[in-house]
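Entry 14. Structure prediction run on the chain below.
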Amino acid sequence: MPSKRHLLALGAIVGVLLAPAVTNHQVAAAIPEPATMTVSPALLTAQVGTKQSQTTIAVSVRNGYDTPITVKANLNGFDIRNNALVPAKTAEAALTKVVTINPSEITIPAHSSKNITVQINDDASLSPGGHYLSLLISQLTATSDTSTPQLSLKTAVSATIYVIKEDGAIRSLQVTNLHAKHSIFSLPTTADITFFNNGNVVVVPRSVVQIGTAATGSIAAQAVLNQDSVPLYPGSRVTLQAPLQRIDKISGIGRVSLVAHYRADGQELTKSAQISFWYIPKKIVVAGIFLLAIVAVLGAPTSRQWILTWHRQRHRRRPSAFVAPTADDIAKSKLAATSVRKKSSRRISL
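Output returned:
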């Protein structure tokens, strides 16, 4: 039978093991709920068409205040600018016709939640493709902050409603620009791709960029674009950049291709865009310079001797060509000789 000492030791061990769990539970219970109003989900996606003429989504509104609040739900519109949704004052008339909210006004007790039902119906007036609405939930009754009772608060939260009419929806993506900064002696380190959404539904571009040679089929570098899942709205452009990770080396001189394989998220069909450029590895350039230096050093004496020989031959005097004397030249020479003899004889007689 265990002794009292053993039981005390066992109790101490159990207490040590359970202490962190109890402490964490106390800390979690001690954290107060933020005094605010929240809505979930923040994005509501609904698809309607011949296969599904109606979609219903429940939106939960949470009251984190210490007092009850009354809220009202309204529909606002969106504009697309620079590949972003910009709030608009009015909503699309065709959307407000097919989207209903029930209830549009509710009272939520303190630290409680209530649902608002959003119903989307298909209608002939709704054009194919994507449509955007904002479900704005505004607080009607003021809430006093317990820390500053004199401050009255009225908050508002919103959720985005994305409606897709599948009948005639087009998901299309194309690359309008593919760029990678490089030189003839260096491969690019980053790749920039500009995508254009020429469909009528928002898409998420996916792309893998590879650098390689067609001669060997090897891949020297690779990059995966848009890992953050940046959306691209219809009629918009976005330029994405990703660093190229080196995989292998290109050892020879030749043309290198940069190929972008891309598609819209959810589609299996993959398209390609590519550019090509000449590439000379730096080691070949260094080897060529080294070889030229060796040739210049070893061939310097021979080159110097050849230059001196060529210079001497160029500046050596050549003998003039012999010209036979004419009869007049002979007569003049004889006359000159006779005149010299006569002068000499006169001098002697004197």
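The first helix runs from residue 4 to 30.
Filed with the rest of this week's runs.
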